[in-house]
Amino acid sequence: MRKRARLCALCCPRASSRRIRHRSTDGGNVANVRSVFRFAQKQTQGDLPLPYTGAKLNSVLIVSGSERSRETLAEVFASSRYAPVITRGSAAEARRLVLDTPFSLVFINTPLPDEPGAQLALDLSSSRNCCVALIVPGDSYDQVNEQVEDEGVLTLSKPCTAQQLRQAAAIMSATRFKLADLEKKTATLEEKMEEIRLVNRAKWMLIERRGMDETTAHRYIEKLAMDARQTRRLVAQTLIRSLDND
To answer: Do the Cβ atoms of 96 and 142 come closer than 8 Å?
Structure first.
């Protein structure tokens, strides 16, 4: 039983440290253990940022008709991971703001003074590169979730704890960065496909109008790009315009 008590003291902050102090040869061990537990408890409660490097910042927009709710939600995201954290009191104010200011994460505490809030969530989710969460009363959760889920809006049921909100924000952030990475790769692929189409068009125009064979036309475009230190896409566009004017 004594061995179990010593092990428990290493994993449970409530365990007595008397036996550790009795057997320890270093008087600072107990204080070190307690310090670790205090740090871990603060992390869980959100008082300290999680200790990892390279975290990407998320800007947060909080929309709520209640000033007290806005202040409470803003405090939940008062850490180095979220900046800036902006609050607005209505859907109209939020819509005006996002016209010029992009946000990573949006939390909408429903209902809003000028509308229920679900339509705002749908509009922001479909037109902006952001992740949106709706905080709704428990009795309307199923109805609202069915309305917005297919559009990628996360629905949270009241009451929400600070930990639940931070966990939701972490999921939304991971989803957003993953989608942004996929969009970037898709855009790169589309640009590459467009370059191939332009080069092929320029190549076949050289074959038809300059009497080159396919290999010669391909080498001609490659040499022009290398000599001019330009991309094949730009060279192909220039060739197409030039051959069209002949």
So the answer is: no
pTM for the model: 0.59
Does residue 183 contact residue 225 with C-beta atoms inside 8 Å? no
Residue with tokens 């440290």: 17
The CA distance from 75 to 107, in Å, is: 13
Is residue 57 within a helix (H) or strand (E), and if so which, with residue range?
A: none
Q: Are residues 66 and 155 in the same domain?
A: yes
170 occurs within a structural domain: no
Of residues 212, 206, 172, 146, the one with CA closest to residue 59: 172
pLDDT tens track for 53-107: 345 788 999 999 999 999 999 999 887 788 899 999 999 999 999 998 889 999 9
- What are 58's strand-pairing partners? 82
Tens of pLDDT along 142-191? 999 999 999 999 999 999 999 999 999 999 988 888 887 887 888 888 88
